[in-house]
């Protein structure tokens, strides 16, 4: 009993254990706020990603200096050159596109460039620009018509309708030809001549009228001019 009472006294002397302290309320509140902030950010991010057209930012516009730095080509002078020379020049390949038309030209040889558009020296941006070229086909060739037996007026009309220039001369007529009609020309029918060429036309004079004015070369089978009555060349 003595030992039991001593144990009770020792137990009574021990200090009572302090009650467990609850976790700090401040730490718990901070954690809740952080969690709410994370949830809010996730919600906003999901909304932004769900909007169409908002996933990529628009590309910035190119500076104006890029446009101003484009290559400028100045059109060469093609007039007077042969088209084959221009066509086979590799310096022009890819830079210009040539649109070609042809027309007759009395002075420019066939295949020569006689006009261009745009004009030489014109500034063109970039490559692949179209240049219009007019190329000569040379003098226009026409067929000499058969006007033997035509009256002078009829022969003139026929030649002029073909772009030819008649030059009429009277020749002596011994009665073999109809007076006032064509007996010969310096160009045989069917031959090709340049448009604008002068055609010498020999017209039979009245019978037995002596001719003193005649072309330098008399018509075949005709005599040169002799003294006597004259007949001026008809125009």
UniProtKB/TrEMBL annotation:
Instruction: Quote the SUPFAM superfamilies the UniProt record gives.
Output: Penicillin-binding protein 2x (pbp-2x), c-terminal domain
Stored SMART domains: PASTA (SM00740)
Q: Where are the transmembrane segments?
A: 27-48
A family per Pfam:
PASTA
Residue ranges, compositional bias (Low complexity):
213-223
List the CDD domains: PASTA_pknB
Question: Per the record's keyword annotation, is Protease included, yes or no?
Answer: no
- Record's keyword terms, sorted: Membrane, Transmembrane, Transmembrane helix
Keyword Transmembrane on this protein?
A: yes
InterPro entries reported for this sequence = PASTA_dom
User: Could you identify this protein by its name?
Assistant: PASTA domain-containing protein
Query: Which residues are in the PASTA domain?
Result: 69-137, 138-205
Q: Where is this region: Disordered?
A: 1-23, 213-235
Coiled-coil ranges per the record?
none
């Amino acid at each position: 009993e003595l030992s039991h009472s001593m144990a009770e006294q020792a137990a009574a002397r021990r200090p009572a254990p302090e009650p467990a302290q609850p976790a700090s309320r401040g730490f718990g509140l901070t954690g809740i706020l952080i969690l709410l902030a994370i949830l809010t950010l996730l919600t906003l991010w999901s909304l932004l990603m769900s909007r169409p057209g908002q996933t990529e930012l628009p590309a910035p516009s190119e500076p104006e200096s890029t446009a101003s730095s484009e290559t400028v080509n100045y059109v060469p002078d093609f007039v007077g050159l042969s088209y084959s020379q221009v066509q086979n020049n590799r310096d022009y390949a890819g830079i210009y596109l040539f649109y070609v038309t042809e027309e007759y030209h009395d002075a420019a040889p066939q295949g020569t460039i006689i006009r261009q558009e745009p004009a030489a020296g014109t500034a063109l941006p970039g490559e692949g620009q179209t240049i219009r070229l007019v190329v000569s086909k040379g003098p226009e060739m026409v067929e000499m018509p058969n006007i033997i037996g035509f009256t002078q007026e009829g022969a003139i009309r026929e030649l002029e309708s073909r772009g030819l220039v008649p030059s009429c001369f009277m020749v002596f007529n011994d009665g073999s030809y109809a007076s006032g009609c064509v007996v010969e020309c310096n160009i045989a029918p069917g031959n090709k001549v340049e448009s604008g060429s002068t055609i010498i036309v020999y017209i039979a004079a009245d019978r037995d009228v002596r001719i003193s004015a005649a072309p330098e070369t008399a018509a075949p089978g005709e005599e040169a001019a002799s003294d006597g009555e004259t007949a001026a060349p008809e125009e």
